[in-house]
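I am writing to request your help with a piece of structural work I have in hand. I set the record out below, with my sincere thanks for your time.
___
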Amino acid sequence: MKRTAFFVSDGTGITAETLGHSMLSQFGDVQFEQVTLPYVNSREATEQAVARINEVARQDSAKPIVFSTLVNEEHREILAGCEALLLDMFAVFVGPLEQELGMRSSHKVGQSHSIRDHEAYRIRIDAVHFALDNDDGARTRHYDLADVILVGVSRSGKTPTSLYLALQFGLYAANYPLTEDDFDDLRLPDALLPHKDKLFGLTIDPERLAAIRSERKAGSRYASARQCDMETRALEALFNRYNIPNLNATELSIEEISTRILAKTGLQRRLQ
């Protein structure tokens, strides 16, 4: 089954996408063509969005699913005329909140992703800079400032996880690749030994690792099944020797990996 899903927003569309993706993920047997319409913040833009939704409805011979976070009441009324199943997030959540709090919301556009807390924004930017500066073991002299140091073999998801921890939680996350040389005597590199309590390991199934590496260097020893199997086995032995907490990230998204790291380590996010 195929259906079209629209995410309509008067801002970036991130909120509509996040909520919509969460709901659509519950219907794994349906293939959704997903379309984001950001900055629908005028009458003309809303009418154009309605026209596009209605055109898809005619082409698909099925109602599109529309997730909307429009704030402006006039624009919401226009969108309500589209030939679709409209899920108006603003109406669903803000109305009950206004009732419970006994006050009307500000109805301001773009509040969820605006820079209202400049201190929080500074924390996020500083954390991202730290993640980039301390990526892939390029620098180790600032590890004393790190909240967590991710360790694992090459292509196991360390870099994207470090950046997500920085962007989403404001954490100072470094990452260090463990190589074949480190596995010869099953000893942690000297740069990591003083920071053992900050280490968190990412493991991955050798078959998946070989597939990822083959996309980059097909036919190489680096991507061979034998090499990947040797590295993952040695990695787990190293983690066991030093009692390093770790997580198998093979089937996990970056979001899941990051939140599980927080749960396992007890790290407190700097951003809410």
Q: What stands out?
A: The CA atoms of residues 178 and 245 lie 15 Å apart. The two ends are 38 Å apart (CA to CA). The chain has ten helices and eight strands. The beta strands are 2-8, 31-37, 65-68, 85-88, 148-152, 173-177, 199-203, 246-248.
